[in-house]
Amino acid sequence: DSKDQKTYFLKIHAPWEVLTKYAAVLNIKAPFKESDIQHGQDAHLEWLSYPFRLPDHIMHPKPDYFTYPFDKNKVGFFLINDKETFFPPSTRNRIVFYILARAPYYSEGRKDREKTGIKRLLSNGTYTAAFPLHDCRLWKIARNAKCESERFNLYKHWARFLCFYKEQPLNLIKKYYGEKVGIYFAWLGFYTEMLFFAAVMGVICFTYGVLSYGDNKSSALILHCIFSQLPDVFNKVAENDFKTR
Predict the structure, then answer these.
(1) Which of 29, 121, 134, 151 would bridge with 67, disulfide CB 3.0–4.6 Å?
(2) Which neighbouring-strand residues pair with 67?
(3) For the segment 53-82, what is each residue's pLDDT rounded down to a tens digit?
(4) Alpha-carbon distance 85 to 188, whole Å?
(5) What are phi and psi of 30, to 5 degrees?
(6) From the record, what ranges are coiled-coil (predicted)?
(7) Treating both helix axes as pointing N-terminal to C-terminal, what angle do 89-102 and 16-25 enclose, rounded to 10 degrees?
């Protein structure tokens, strides 16, 4: 259906058989055993991080797993509780795009074998756009009770200015946008956190300099010389600009 009766919409869904086939082709790693490696935690100072944490129903804390490249012939080897949620949305989108990017649309027996892939169809105007669908609207919870409303949770607890002091839901970011985007924001969060300490030291040094400005004769003399020469500098700049014109 479309308003102009000329535009058509095509919705693509990848069934389980297709996902397992191309997951093996792309060597997508899947969990097969829960990790037994212990992570050290400082329980005495754990309460300090409570104001910066997100609730468990947003973070969905899960244990670490050992992973192995997926093999459709060894489905029983992997921890598959639900086929609908075993592959996250980012992985499903990656598989579908991989298929579309290599799908030929030439007739059998023809020599124009360069007619391959969704990108070529987009460039020649056959399709106006091709994109993955979001799970729900970002400002409302999904109508389907089974839907986790991941986009809504990301918008409410991550992509807002008032949540700048909260931890990032990296598991949800990785699940929804993929590993590359998740790693980027993990690095960005660490980088910003390290800059915080440098900013605090900078503010302390700046405040001390302002408060001790009157007692420092060298700084006062330097500033006096700079500001006394500013009118001559501005006059020379204006004169040179006038000559240029």
Answers:
(1) 29
(2) 31
(3) 777 767 666 777 888 889 888 888 888 888
(4) 28
(5) -130, 150
(6) none
(7) 80
Handedness of CA 89, 95, 100, 106 (dihedral sign): negative
Query: What pLDDT score was predicted for residue 99?
Result: 93
Contact between 86 and 80 under an 8 Å Cβ cutoff? The reply is yes
Distances (CA, A) of 18 to 3, 85, 93: 33, 15, 12
90 in Cβ contact with 176 (< 8 Å)? yes
Query: pLDDT tens for residues 198-207?
Result: 999 999 988 8
Cα–Cα nearest to 156, from 47, 90, 148, 61: 148
Instruction: Decide: 129 and 122 in contact? Cβ < 8 Å.
Output: yes
Helix (H, G, I), strand (E, B) or coil at 71: coil
Q: Phi/psi of residue 66, each to 5°?
A: -80, 135
Give residue for tokens 């074998």: 113
What are 104's two structure tokens? 């030929």
pLDDT of 133 reads: 82
Q: Is 112's pLDDT higher than 70?
A: no
B/e letters for 94-129, b = 16+ CB within 10 Å, e = fewer, are bbbeebeeeeeeeeeeeeeeeeebbeebeeeeeeee
